[in-house]
Amino acid sequence: MKISGFTFLRNAQMLGYPFIESITSILPIVDEFIIALGPCEDRTEIMIRNINSSKIRIIHTTWNENMKDRGYVYGQQKMIAQFNCMGDWAFYLEGDEVVHENDLNKIVDCCKKYKDNNAVEAIAFNYIHFYGNRKSYLDSPSWYRKEARIIKNSIRTYAPDGLFWLVLDKNKIGRYPKAICCDVNIYHYGWVRSEEEMNLKSKKIQKFWGKKHSKIIYENIDQNIIKEFKGTHPIAVQKWLPKEDNVFIANKNYKLTRKDMKNRVLKKIESIFHIDLSKKHFIEIKKQNLQWK
């Protein structure tokens, strides 16, 4: 069994991504790591080459600066990398996502277990969305709690944007992949970078969604969804993380939006009925219902 890791990057150093930490976190379990690298104005490529791993293969790409429809250019870049993966499984990590070293063997075992099961098309993971600092994460139905990040490389898929996949059946109508959930966390650090870096990122990428940049202020958030993280961070990312040890405090004068109030209602419903109302970009396969094909 072979596993290919892959991602796409552009100006990752300038925009504050922990991309080196992300790549190296799964490098021990992949047979290759493919990077679709767009034109950069910083040291991103130099930093990647300094990892000095024979598993890493860089593919230089161009970006369609005129593609402004719902982030489709991100899907194009993701697929360039995926189309160059040769493994049985393709493991996609975004540049701000890191895997804990304690979970690597679990991931490999999961890939081995379902490699020849045709009912399983993908593997999904739990998500921890850190916010503001190393001690705080977000718990809200507006932030996906699970996502598919490993796809079988033998099925016909494409990415309408960078986040998720669609499977093309014989009728060529896209649907979400059928995924088994692996009891492993993906540590998402995109909202831990500095506000300056986050706003620079927004200025550079919003055009690909046909949107204009609006200033991001971390404090303008509902304190109700911020929770204390009591676990341990992956070794790979510990030096990158800011040193704050307190739970992030939101602006006390922040006025809740309609979306915030809606999510409070949804969270209340979740707690009453013990359900998860967050968005899933996959069709979850319950292990007790899994049939071997």
What does this structure look like?
- The two termini are 18 Å apart.
- The relative contact order is 0.18.
- The chain is globular, with a radius of gyration of 19 Å.
- It has a single domain (1-293), classed as Spore Coat Polysaccharide Biosynthesis Protein SpsA, Chain A, CATH 3.90.550.
- It has 293 residues and is of the alpha/beta class.
- The strands form 2 sheets. Strands 1, 2, 3, 4, 5, 6, 7, 8, 12, 13 and 14 form an 11-stranded mixed β-sheet that branches. Strands 9-10-11 form a 3-stranded antiparallel β-sheet, with no helix packed on it.
- The protein contains 6 helices and 14 strands.
Uncertain segments of ≥5 residues (pLDDT<50)?
A: none
Q: Number of helical runs?
A: 6
Element order: H for helix, E for strand: EHEHEHEEHEEEEEEEHEHE
**Share in helix:** 10-25%
Total strand segments: 14
Instruction: Write down the CATH class.
Output: Alpha Beta
Beta-strand level of the residues, as a percent range? Answer: 15-25%
Distance between the termini: 18 Å
Mean pLDDT: 94
CATH architecture grouping: Alpha-Beta Complex
Provide the descriptors you would attach to this structure in a database record:
293 residues, alpha/beta, Spore Coat Polysaccharide Biosynthesis Protein SpsA, Chain A, 3-stranded antiparallel sheet, 6 helices, 14 strands
Summed up:
This protein has 293 residues and is α/β, with parallel strands linked by helices. The protein has six helices and 14 strands.
List strands and helices in order, with pairings.
Blueprint: E1 3-9, H1 19-26, E2 32-37, H2 44-49, E3 56-60, H3 72-82, E4 89-92, E5 97-99, H4 104-114, E6 122-131, E7 136-138, E8 146-152, E9 157-158, E10 166-168, E11 174-175, E12 178-191, H5 195-205, E13 226-228, H6 258-273, E14 283-285
Parallel strand pairs: 1-2, 1-4, 2-3, 6-12, 12-14
Antiparallel strand pairs: 4-8, 5-12, 6-7, 6-8, 7-13, 9-10, 10-11
